[in-house]
Amino acid sequence: MNPRLLRRLWFFGTWLLFPWPLLIMKDAWVPAVRYLMLGIVAAAVGVTEGAAGASGLIVLLLLGWGVLATFLSWLLAHAIASLLSRFPKRQALAATVVILGAALIWALFFEPYYTPFGRAIRGGLLQVLS
Length: 130
Prior knowledge:
Elements: H1 3-17, E1 20-22, E2 25-30, H2 32-49, H3 55-84, H4 89-109, E3 113-114, E4 122-123, H5 125-129
Helix pairs in contact: 1-3, 1-4, 2-3
């Protein structure tokens, strides 16, 4: 397996599934993609309704943390891919498929994420991304 493809698979897996904490709110543990989605929606509301008060800071916080968590997802993916590149290609691919598949099942069918920004405080991947 191409190390670049392996790194991309791990990046999208960690970006979409790995729960990153929001530093100022200890109860927020969601994937990086969720912070980016919230930041884009907050920016759209700020542009449409007018960015008065703390809305600009909220946009900067959410987008900034989303970008930082995306970068951390890439670093984590790079570390995992370089570790797996030491194994034969078939074993690295099998480990990637098994681990990311198990993580996807865990994220879809259980409630691993905590978010004060959703309908429920705890939820699975579909609740967090909806």
